[in-house]
Amino acid sequence: MTTRHIIFIPGTNPKPRAEEHRALLWRTLLEGVRRVDAETAQHLQAHPAQFHLVSWNNLFYHEQKDIGMDQPWVEALLSKPKPSEQDILDANGLGNKMRQAVVRVVDRVPFLLRFLSKPTHKILLDIERYFNDTEQVASQIRNLLKQVLLPLLEKNEPVLIIGHSMGSVIAYDTLWEMSQKNIAGQQDGLSKLDFLTLGSPLGMRIIQKKLLGRQGIGKISFPSNIRRWNNVAAEGDIVALNGNFKHSFKEMLNREMVETIEDYDHGVYNFFRNEVGLNSHRSYGYLVNPVVGRLIAAWWRASTNKN
Q: Closest Cα partner for 119 from 268, 247, 11?
């Protein structure tokens, strides 16, 4: 039986200590799978060592978050079977619609960035800092992912990379860098893996222009080591506003660089709440969502008996 691996790359902001954060993410992921496929969740639960966290945030922010700030809200999330009517109203409310409109304008006219809401503004500023690669912080972060990923690819073991928010940008850049530098040394210089993006800003023009390789022409512009790419964008998630990756990255499909790109950007609700209210962007809320649970369960089942 093939050993398969799930690698999770988190989004922006300081995170709890790596082991604490990993345990909470793992628990949430398992619950998301259990809600759609209890048998697969039970099998998955028996392989905790095959869930890897690329904990880059302390390198970037030089501080850690107290896990106690998240724990009670995650407990509430795990005890909640589905979004409430209020969650749906808040995600689709007038305030969110207005913020979405502002983000669309900023994506076309970047100098208006300062007019974004503070949380969205901060996320995009952090991504900008990553792209600037000050003191080679971006290179160091990508190396953290490579340290986990390369040994698995060298053994030709199935890998699912899950990138949340800025984590999806880090993953994309790393995969491009690896595919261009022919690091893995597999057939045709590439070892393919599967990619799941959650709450990703990769659909935004201001992000795409700065991705590694995007100044190139043709195939060299894109990573060549993604087999299947699924993207999930929740209603009301401002960061993941432009969630049609099948269109944004259609050249990868046209050039047969990827087998499929599928978007799940309608009717998906991230119902994570904390003291501030609904947060449609949090990773825990994505992982417990049945759409994400179904995608992870399907990947785990499909990769179980691969040689």
A: 11
The closest alpha carbon to 237, from 212, 202, 205, belongs to 202
Q: Which residue has the tokens 């050249």?
A: 251
- Give the separation between CA 30 and CA 10, rounded to whole angstroms: 17
0.90 surpassed by pTM: yes
How does pLDDT run across 232-264, given as a tens digit for each residue? 999 999 899 888 999 999 999 999 999 999 999
**Spatial CB neighbours of 192, under 8 Å, sequence gap ≥ 6:** 225, 226, 227
Q: What is the number of residues in the chain?
A: 307
Q: Report the half-sphere exposure of 232 (CA within 13 A, side-chain side).
A: 27
Nearest CA among 284, 246, 287, 276 for reference residue 263: 246
User: The tokens of 68 are what?
Assistant: 């106690």
* Structure tokens that stand for 279 in this block: 């947060």
**Cα 226 vs. chain centroid, distance in angstroms?**
14
